[in-house]
Every structure is written in C-alpha cells, then in structure tokens.
Amino acid sequence: MTYYRRKGQRRAGTRYAGVYAGLVLLGIYDRCTPALAAEVSLLAAMLGSLDEARDVLADRGVDLDSKTMRLIAYRYAARARLDHQIETTTFEETVAGRRVVISSDGGRIRLREAKRGPKTKKGRRRYTGAWREPKVLIIYVVDAEGKREASFAPVIDATLKGPDAVFALLRTYLQRLSITQADQVLFVADGAPWIGKRVPLLVQALGLAAQQVHELLDLYHAVQHLAQVAALRNDWSAKARSRWRTQQRRLLLRGQLEQVIAALRDICRGRNSKAMRTHRDYFIKHQSRMAYAQLMAMKLPIGSGAIESTVRRVVNLRLKGPSLFWCRASAEAILLLRSYYKAGRWKMLKHMATSHLALLET
Hints:
- With 362 residues, this protein is an alpha/beta fold.
- Among the domains are: 99-118 and 125-214 and 303-326, 2-Layer Sandwich (Nucleotidyltransferase, domain 5); 220-289, no CATH class.
- 50% of the residues lie in helices and 13% in strands.
- It has helices spanning 21-25, 34-46, 50-59, 66-85, 163-176, 193-196, 199-206, 219-232, 238-254, 257-267, 273-285, 292-297, 305-319, 328-343, 346-353, 356-361, and strands at 4-5, 18-19, 99-106, 109-114, 127-132, 135-142, 155-159, 184-189, 213-217.
- The longest helix has 20 residues, at 66-85.
- The radius of gyration is 25 Å and the shape is globular.
- The mean pLDDT is 90.
C-alpha cells in the first residue's frame, strides 16, 4: 500500500511520521487489527493491571509484552477521545419525556510528577507522588418510582483536567442527549464549591427551563454535618448526640429546614461554638438545595450514592493502590476506557476509537 508522509527532504537517522491510508480505512492501526486493539484495551480497563491483561492474552495464544499493550490501549483511548471532541458521536437512546439524574464528584489518585534534582544511581529521573483529584460524572435515568431504568445505560466519564473540563464534558453529553426534552432534570451532589457554582451556569448554557430543573445537596452529607455538630458537644452523652442527630434528620426529611437551622443556632455556644457556627452556615448556605420532602414526593433520588459508587468502581478499584503512581496521560486513558466499560457502553467506545476521522487525525 502507498505510504503517505509530510513533504520534505529526508535526513539520515530521522524518522518521519506517516500513515498507510489504506490500512487506516480498514481499521488497522498501530500494527493491530481493530479486534485485537479492542480486546487489549478492554482487558486493560477490565482487569487490575496490564500484567494481568498480558497473562489473559497469553492463555489465548496472543503473546504481547506490557509495553506493547500499554501503547495499544493508550492510543486506542486517545482516538476515542478525539472522536468525542470532533462531535461525531451520537446516542441511540433519548431522554425525551424521562427523568434524568446528573451527579459529579472527585476521587484520589497519585501522579508521577517530575522532581528537580540529579538522577538516581540507575540514571532514572526523580519524581514526586502527588495526590490529584480526577473528576467523575454520571448521567442516568430513573422511572416513576425513582429506580434506575435498566433500559438506559448510564453515561460515565472522568478526567484529570479540572472542574471546567468535566463540566465541559457534561455539557457535551447533555446536548447530544437532547436534555431540553427531558421531563425533569435533577443535579445532586455533595456541597463542594466547584460543583455548586458551575451548575447554574450549565443550566443556563443548556437552555433548561427553571420548572424542569432541581438542585439537591446529598442528604447523607447533610446528616454527616449534623453528626459533626453533635460530636462537638462535649457535655452530651453518646446517646444524646445520636438522639439529636436523628431528630434533625427527620426534620430535614419533613421539609422543616428552618427548625433545623434554629436548633443549630441554639446549641452554638461553649468551647466549640466557632466550629459549630461553620456547620450552621453550611445549612444556611445550601438551604435552597435541601428540598428533600418535595423530591421524595416526586419519587426522585435524595442521595448521591450513584456517583460515590462510580468513583469507587472507576477510580479506586483500578487506579488507586499502594505504591501505585500514574503518568497523567496514562491515567487519562485508563479513566476513559474504564468509564465506558463500567457504564456498559463499550460498543460505543469501540465505534469512537475505530472512526476513520479519529484514525486519520491521530
């Protein structure tokens, strides 16, 4: 087949990146057929490490070393992400007339970041294992009883590029799902400032009507703050703390938030009064996002357990572990592959990664 490369005089010892366009049209890239590239990438996302994936392939008669598998999987993810960015991906499902729940949260992984100073005795560059927070999103649909609809596979994605990047992903997904045609849209998350201040901007950018949008603070994070307030009362017994917390939780579920805030004001005294006022201000700040009784009556979720579980399955069980450090690009690749695998949308990612536009662009 004809090999295409950039024009210019070839110099001795210099490699010129080019492409066999005929092979690309057949889906052959990185010297791999589409089936092999997809299988390697799937095993890299599914299993705990590339070494495990290598062993599974070896049992099937495919002998690849870890370095080759890493190259295949990471480039596969890069092509899928590129196809997503050039806006060719479409969803077969629709959210028209449905009740959509959207949530986002962050995990924790350690990245290899270059460290200044001399190399090690073995000639390796030194690095620091800094903790970084990958941002994860999930979009799913619930039925009239508030249970997740099995007919709609959730949309899951994650990135290390920060809050603006994950909300840009969220906006892209929601636009492609035609979110304005949804019946109800619920944004539920913890009280992280990076989420709260971006949701109204996202709602405005999507053109959602005020009557179809609800913002909610996860009930269990609110109850956690109540427990912390009770723990600050050193003059209370353990039974009294538990009783007070349970009482305030019931008031929250009944929609009597004013009574909860009043109770917090009443006990903000003594040695730990300053810390108690911080928790009191938390409830005052988020009181517009604590309509638990209203949403329970509408049979909508009042907790963010879906995103908490997603962070655990996508991030913690694959990218987080003792003495486990990631290069940023490698972590981004595995986050994308594992997100689609855990969402049950692997076929969609395969279509993205084998797109002719993505293949030719890379």
